[in-house]
Write the structure tokens for this entry.
Amino acid sequence: MRILLSILLVLPLAADQPIMNMMPRWDGGFGFQLMQQYRTESELLDGKDEVGDGLSESVHLLHLEGVYTWDRSIRLTAKLPFVLDAERELLDAAGNKVTQTDSGVGDLTLALPLKRYFNETDKSGSWTFAPQLRVPLGEKDEYSVYDRAWGMGLSFGYEQETSTSFLAVGVSGWFLEGDEDEELHAHLDLGWNFNSRGQLLLETDAHYESDGSYTVSTGPALYYRITDLVHTRLEWKVDVVDYQKELDHGKGQSIKVGVGFVW
């Protein structure tokens, strides 16, 4: 039976491409995945300095993501996040702690990944180019997890694997409307393929914004194919470098767990 292959590059918050970082590689293949994400940020930062005492942010997201493959080298992906619960703590002008909340549908991201595959004696892999579009689906409030702005993005990536090893690198850039900062994202994934069904990875992500803010996070991820239809993924990342040019929360960690289906 047909099986999934190929990992693509990261995007913000909805960091990866369906399904479970995998894709149907055959004409007419399609699938979808549901991914729960829990992110906590323990400090309010001004640069690298903590502001206040224990002012945190927590976000619970549900990602609904789908993919359709016209040709093994041409795909369409759609990613729609839902903010199930979000809460952050700030200080008001008088120095008192205030709590803000957010919930509802996030911003839709559409992408058209274009891939070129190669097969060699000891390895196989691909190059990827992906134009992307971000569509705001709600109004921006005093506290909004998502930018609520139209955006155009481009992604480039390279991956290769053997029977036991995996390597993926990529970079993506976003240009957003209005006064939103431009964003640059990069990633490096190193992995071990095991049991012909699973993959254990060490993933490192870097995020930079045009105002000078930057974050680097890293951690393990586990992918396992239960059947050709059902795929699972679990990942955990922690911020190891965090600098916020404008007052914002940071020094966080994120857990994702999900299930995907492909035909």
Summary: Residues 30-262 form a domain with the Porin fold (CATH 2.40.160.40).
